[in-house]
Amino acid sequence: xxxxxxSLLAAGGSPGQLAKYAxxxxxxxxxxxxxxxxxxxxxxxxxxxxxxxVDGAELTDWLAGQGYRTRLIHAAEAVLPDEPGSLATAAERxxxxxxxxxxxxxTHGDVGLVSFGFETHDxxxxxxxxxxxxxxxxxDLTAAWEDHQDWDRRNPNExxxxxxxxxxxxxxxxxxxx
Length: 178
Prior knowledge:
The chain is an alpha+beta fold and 178 residues long. 31% of the residues lie in helices and 31% in strands.
């Protein structure tokens, strides 16, 4: 099963911290599958989706030693339809559980793979149960990614046009609204 990390990168504004953080993960052989974050009042944190083969507890301790306050987050994933309101519906189903992080791990066709992060494994299990038909069973992200890449090979998408203002070739392209 995959994992999420939540790491504080900036306390008081620290240019270059994302580059340093990403380089340190890379040097430890950690492959970032998805990442998101923001800064608010000079405090900046990132949520990072990583492979399950990584010892998350050891990595959390190591990152703390590098100056990054980090916590291990338990993930529950859902495949949501690409339509207005699908994220709201998923969050409503999760209900009273405290969602610590949310990452869009991938979009493809008319769906998006969304990873919700929780304090405990039990909360993540409860979220998967509440998400029912949207939920993705616990899985190994590396195997899931290999399946996804195989699907991509069998179902090629039109490559984005970097010169087009919306990144696609003419008619029919549509933005992701997950």
